[in-house]
Design goal:
Layout (H helix, E strand, L loop, with lengths): L6 E5 L5 H9 L5 E7 L3 H13 L3 E6 L5 H15 L4 E4 L14 H29 L2 E6 L3 H4 L5 H21 L4 E8 L5 H4 L3 H9 L9 H12 L10 E4 L6
Parallel strand pairs: 1-2, 1-4, 2-3, 4-5, 5-6, 6-7
Helix pairs in contact: 1-9, 3-4, 4-6
This protein binds NADPH dihydro-nicotinamide-adenine-dinucleotide phosphate.
């Protein structure tokens, strides 16, 4: 690890997709990146590799965001090594789609526990360190459907709407300590999560996008980078849509 580390960035779900693109925008010799993942060991090593090739330094740990015990262990590792948490990006998320009458309790719980409780767990631990530093940036990845609703996604939409409420409340709690808390709401972005959709569903999704195309993970990551920068120091409690106009 380089000696001149000036800031610590934490990204949840950094092994692939949008999370990997977010790790990449922070690839810089003065930045230490920690990310986590739940299963995809090989992908995690790949994220470490691409960040390293871009001149940065990232470590991926297998940590389930839905477990407060796991998350506490994650932040202990980070604080033991660098003593600070400057930027937290709550990106880890899953979808288990079904119509409400067919949705199982297990699918409801899995999605709420990963997406919403995971965001709570990491925010709680990061905020403790940020309050001591009197500095921090928290960026939560929600979704356009967290604002618009979507049939067949009651669990996912509830978790993403919950993230928006959490963002606004914590923004109000932490604003005087120089800590901003914002949410980014992607629309249809090409990742493994959306690759699972049928071709018909994909073209229907594109049909809902005024820009006429799916977004790239890097287009979400660029907005995260801006919100984490000094240029965004007076923005807090906001939801920034990155959707090609899917929600206006
Ligand atoms: P992917 O499915 O490609 O990646 C999800 C990431 O989250 C993986 O790194 C995965 O790790 C990790 N993860 C899942 N569960 C856990 C867990 N319990 N603990 C720790 N890490 C976990 O998703 P995307 O990149 O597409 O999505 C990233 C975020 O953006 C999500 O919150 C998603 O809801 C949101 N989003 C995505 C959109 C899209 O169109 N793609 C649109 C709107 C929002 P592992 O590989 O080990 O499972």
């Amino acid at each position: 690890m380089p000696d001149q580390i000036k800031r610590t960035v934490v990204v949840t779900g950094g092994s692939r997709g949008i999370g990997r693109a977010i790790c990449l925008v922070f690839a810089n010799p003065d930045t230490r990146i920690f990310f986590n993942y739940s299963r995809s060991e090989e992908d995690a090593r790949q994220t470490e590799e691409v960040v390293s090739q871009a001149g940065g330094y990232a470590s991926g740990l297998q940590i389930d965001v839905s477990s407060l015990t796991d998350v506490a262990r994650f932040f202990k590792t980070i604080l033991d090594e660098t003593g600070r948490v400057d930027i937290l990006v709550n990106n880890a998320g899953i979808a288990r789609d079904a119509l409400i009458v067919r949705m199982s309790e297990a699918d409801w719980d899995a999605v709420l526990n990963t997406n919403l409780k995971g965001t709570f767990n990491c925010t709680k631990l990061a905020a403790k360190a940020m309050l001591k530093q009197r500095y921090g940036r928290i960026i939560n990845i929600t979704s356009v459907v967290g604002v618009s609703g979507n049939p067949g996604q009651a669990n996912y939409v509830a978790s993403k709407a919950g993230i928006i409420g959490l963002t606004k409340s914590v923004a109000r709690e932490l604003a005087t300590r120089n800590i901003t808390v914002n949410a980014v709401a992607p629309g249809y972005i090409e990742t493994e999560m959306t690759n699972k959709l049928s071709d018909k569903a994909k073209s229907e999704m594109v049909g809902l996008v005024p820009a006429g195309r799916a977004g790239k993970p890097s287009e979400v990551a660029d907005v995260v980078e801006f919100l984490a920068s000094e240029k965004a120091s007076y923005i807090t409690g906001q939801v920034i849509h990155v959707s090609g106009g899917m929600y206006i």
